[in-house]
Specification:
- By secondary structure, this protein is α/β, with parallel strands linked by helices.
- It folds into 2 domains: 48-94, no CATH class; 96-321, Rossmann fold (3-Layer(aba) Sandwich).
- The chain has helices spanning 5-15, 76-82, 118-135, 159-170, 186-196, 216-228, 241-245, 269-294, 307-321; strands at 48-54, 58-64, 86-94, 97-103, 139-145, 149-152, 202-207, 232-239, 254-257, 264-267, 297-302.
- Strand 4, helix 3 (118-135) and strand 5 form a beta-alpha-beta unit.
- Helix 3 packs antiparallel against helix 4 (159-170), helix 5 packs parallel to helix 6 (216-228) and helix 6 (216-228) packs parallel to helix 8.
- It is elongated, with a radius of gyration of 24 Å.
């Protein structure tokens, strides 16, 4: 009897060299949903209530009929009782609008021998969420950034649009190339996304957050800009916890290479480990705390775990909070 896709996932997770997204390995969420915590704005018929009113599916209240209006929505039963003309006012319903944001800087291509790269982990997580949103009949868009905003699409729910998003994601499934390095500058990209996303949306960011620590105040301002524009924000901090945070390297000489600048540094891990861990944990703890203060969901996504486990754990916890 052949193994199921989920049984084979671990093997695929470690060994697949495919440049295409393998749909059979995307996360399966069962009855879990991705819902907005707050009311969103839109016009597509779906499962999320809009704060705006129109003539649609669910009755909200009555209002007096105005001369010259169509009589299509007049409540004739109420007229029979009151001899006054009232129009039925309905609550418009809308899909969730979700903007997926992917950091495409070169540091996202880092991987150790036991796990996927941060890029591949993020792409499969995003593809899984696209499938979930498709199931919910929700609209989804995609933004890609490195040192600038490389791509920003509108949020749509058509099959053609989904195929386009997959093709753009698959372009990022590539090995690290020292001749084509891209640095990180999330600040301006996030400001641009805040302004380009005209409808209030759920913005989900996948990034290793390896921007210049000296610019952290500007980074927080960019995240705050998204919130100021009424977007709900989820930040997945994609990281190889074992190597990048806990610095669990063999105690031997290494030549460390900055994947975004090509700069090299020779060191012995034991000589810098304590200071490195202290400063790294301090920085990302501050990011997490600032996100909490701004009402942004912060979730560490460790590439040493399976991406579907990370998503299911998060959605299960989120479901209890809504």
């Amino acid at each position: 009897m052949p193994n199921s896709p989920l049984t084979n996932l671990k093997i695929h997770y470690l060994s697949s060299m495919s440049e295409q997204i393998q749909r059979e390995y995307l996360a399966q969420f069962g009855s879990l949903e991705l819902l907005a915590k707050h009311v969103v704005e839109g016009f597509i018929t779906g499962m999320h209530k809009s704060p705006f009113h129109g003539f649609s599916v669910e009755f909200a209240e009555h209002r007096l009929y105005n001369t010259g209006e169509s009589t299509r929505h007049v409540d004739w039963k109420l007229y029979a009782r009151t001899e006054k003309l009232f129009t039925k006012k309905y609550e418009e319903e809308t899909n969730l609008r979700c903007q997926m944001v992917l950091d495409c800087s070169s540091s996202m291509l880092f991987q150790n021998k036991d796990a996927w790269s941060k890029m591949k982990f993020s792409i499969y997580a995003i593809a899984s969420l696209i499938e979930l949103l498709k199931k919910q009949r929700d609209a989804v868009g995609l933004s890609l950034f490195s040192d600038q905003l490389e791509l920003h699409t509108e949020t749509k729910s058509s099959t053609r649009h989904h195929r386009y998003l997959y093709s753009e994601l698959e372009k990022q499934l590539k090995p690290y190339d020292q001749k084509k390095i891209k640095s990180t500058s999330a600040i301006q990209a996030l400001h641009d996304i805040a302004e380009l996303s005209h409808k209030r949306s759920l913005v989900i960011i996948f990034s290793d957050m390896l921007d210049d620590p000296e610019n952290k105040d500007q980074l927080f301002e960019a995240l705050q800009h998204l919130k100021h524009n009424k977007h709900e924000v989820i930040l997945f901090h994609v990281v190889d916890k074992k190597n990048e945070l806990d610095f669990e390297l063999e105690n031997r000489p290494y030549t460390m290479v900055d994947m975004e600048t090509g700069e090299k540094m020779k060191l012995v891990p034991s000589e810098v480990k304590e200071h490195y861990i202290e400063q790294t944990h301090k920085y990302f703890k501050e990011v997490e705390q600032k996100c909490g203060a701004f009402g942004i969901d912060f979730k560490q996504a460790d590439t040493n775990e399976l991406f579907n486990d990370v998503l299911i754990q998060y959605l299960t916890k989120r479901k209890k909070m809504i």
